[in-house]
Amino acid sequence: xxxxxxxxxxxxxxxxxxxxxxxxxxxxELATVDSDYFGxxxxxxxxxxxxxxxxxxxxxxxxxxxxxxxxxxxSLVGEDIWKRIDVEPSGSAxxxxxxxxxxxxxxxxxxxxxxAIVICDILSSHLKNPKTALxxxxxxxxxNSEITYCPSIAQSEKDTGYRNYALINFLxxxxxxxxxxxxxxDLYFHLCSVKMNCCQLAQTxxxxxxKGKQPxxxxxxxxxxxxxxxxxxxxxxxxxxxxGEFAYKVGLPGxxxxxxGIAAILPNQYAISVWSPKLNARGNSFRGMKFLxxxxxxxxxxxx
Length: 304
Ligand code: GLN
Description:
Blueprint: H1 3-16, E1 39-44, E2 49-53, E3 59-60, H2 66-77, H3 98-102, H4 113-126, H5 130-142, H6 151-160, H7 162-173, H8 181-193, E4 195-196, H9 198-209, H10 224-237, H11 243-249, E5 254-256, E6 261-266, E7 270-275, H12 286-299
Helix pairs in contact: 1-12, 2-4, 2-10, 4-7, 4-8, 6-8
The structure holds glutamine (GLN).
């Protein structure tokens, strides 16, 4: 069976299931999105592309962008970033504060909010104009100069980001934020506000399926060894307290966002993205998880 057919069958099966979950409302701007959207795109390293559903509608990629900020920090600073962040799964919610106290302000990993905020601080220390440089980096990885931040989502996060303000101030009290708190949190909110459609997102993640090299441009975004490590972190930490479940059911390294998107890769083969805004109790796309489970069950090709 060909890839397009497998995508269509899995998509239809999920669409027929009761649509469970709820759209994220704690960022008011995210709550304005039609919760029925459901799109998929798969791009292979060789350049084939398969799409289905609402694959061309831009959405807020939210925490999926944390993989891109991590890549940028690793390529700028290398292994030294691990002096300030660990690489262990948290087993906790993405915005949890509980481990930070007992672990002296060292976030468990760079894909939870606390870890991504420290990454934003590292970027702020190394870049003259971090907001511009980060966007340019994302555009390079995406091979698309039209990707932008969404000012209304960044503002909405700022207006209601009480937990993120708590996290950054807590981190600062441990000395793990070196720059001005307001500037760093502004960079973090902008990072989370990036908008892409499913096809742009799958294209963006192609480098992690291709040993760090952007499949379209041939540019080496991160080294093969760094790509291996980023994929390992996605596998163990990309879905917060549901990372085990995603590995168990889907079997691919991936990353979710509260906008309802998921990006995942099969090394040396493809990147896939799925978007459906309703989230399960752990903040991951309900339909996105189900779709990818059915998809890899059908292809029988995963990292396991
Ligand atoms: N911007 C969101 C937040 O900081 C990101 C969370 C997510 O996508 N899991 O809460």
